[in-house]
Amino acid sequence: MAYQTLIVETAPEGAAGVVLIRLNRPEALNALNAQLLGELAVALGEAQADEAVGCIVLTGSAKAFAAGADIKEMSDKTYAQMFKADFFTAGARAVEQCRKPIIAAVSGYALGGGCELAMMCDFIIAADTAKFGQPEINLGVAPGIGGTQRLTRFVGKSKAMDMILTGRMMGAEEAERSGLVSRIFPADLLLPEVLAMAAKIAAQSPLAVAMNKELVQAAYETTLTTGVALERRLFHSLFAFEDQKEGMAAFVEKRKPEFKGR
Ligand code: CO8
């Protein structure tokens, strides 16, 4: 598909098995509008369907991952229009339901819906220039695609309240210290580092990757006892796949495994 608000590259910079999805509305600091979220849902659907893809990287520009939902598109909407269009949820659902890992590579602003989009991904790697925030309070509204829930789980109640009620931004170091971000790189190294990470994930067994992702996600949704029981079941079930035999044989034979996804 020819995208107008995204740039989609397969195996960028030689990163085998990786799809790079770049949000591309530079005139609006990558503000998320209906078209962009619709295109994102299509791009993720294609990446999900392509067996050659093992990991997805979502990024923006040097200045902005995304500066939020498109305020100009939203400003005149009525309650009925927002409700009927189920505004935003299709794009959000595509990210939430993707079974392949998605890494958010965040440089510059990740505000409002942009911060929420990054938090929907499996983990966030930040440039030292990254700024996270939920400034919806300044517009007389609230986060609408998970910000109050996910930010609170990432950074705890006190900091989430502080961020959401004051609308202040958090820099990369504070975000890493608070558990929102996994790692920080200098801005010019962000993409090469994230692509190398993504290629490493893409070279693993896609079956094991999908099950590991499902298990970590389950830690958010269930009790410890249920989560541990699910982990044990999936751990046992991984022994049904050739990839487990290959991974363990390769270790014993002191060679690199070649996973086939079966
Ligand atoms: N929406 C639309 N346009 C935007 C947005 C946005 N969120 N952010 C920036 N832009 C546009 C600006 O209007 C400007 O356009 P123009 O040149 O035509 O005036 C262009 O991008 C460049 O922006 P600035 O000139 O403002 O750039 P600065 O470097 O001076 O400032 C900031 C950068 C600080 C990021 C500033 O642009 C800003 O504060 N942006 C808005 C941030 C914000 O409030 N985000 C939250 C939006 S609400 C939201 O995300 C709710 C999500 C939940 C929706 C769920 C629905 C169900």
Automatic annotation (TrEMBL):
MF terms (GO), sorted A to Z: enoyl-CoA hydratase activity
Classification via InterPro entries: ClpP/crotonase-like_dom_sf, Enoyl-CoA_hyd/isom_CS, Enoyl-CoA_hydra/iso, Enoyl-CoA_hydra_C
PROSITE patterns found in the cross-reference section: ENOYL_COA_HYDRATASE (PS00166)
Keywords tagged on the record: Fatty acid metabolism, Lipid metabolism, Lyase
Gene3D superfamilies: 2-enoyl-CoA Hydratase, Chain A, domain 1, Lyase 2-enoyl-coa Hydratase, Chain A, domain 2
CDD domains, sorted: crotonase-like
Biological process terms in GO annotation: fatty acid beta-oxidation
EC code(s) of this entry: 4.2.1.17
EC primary class: lyase
Transmembrane segments annotated in the record for this chain: none
Pfam families: ECH_1 (PF00378)
Catalytic reactions on record: a 4-saturated-(3S)-3-hydroxyacyl-CoA = a (3E)-enoyl-CoA + H2O; a (3S)-3-hydroxyacyl-CoA = a (2E)-enoyl-CoA + H2O
Function: Could possibly oxidize fatty acids using specific components.
Protein family according to the UniProt entry: Belongs to the enoyl-CoA hydratase/isomerase family.
Name used for this protein in its record: enoyl-CoA hydratase
Organism of provenance: Caulobacter henricii
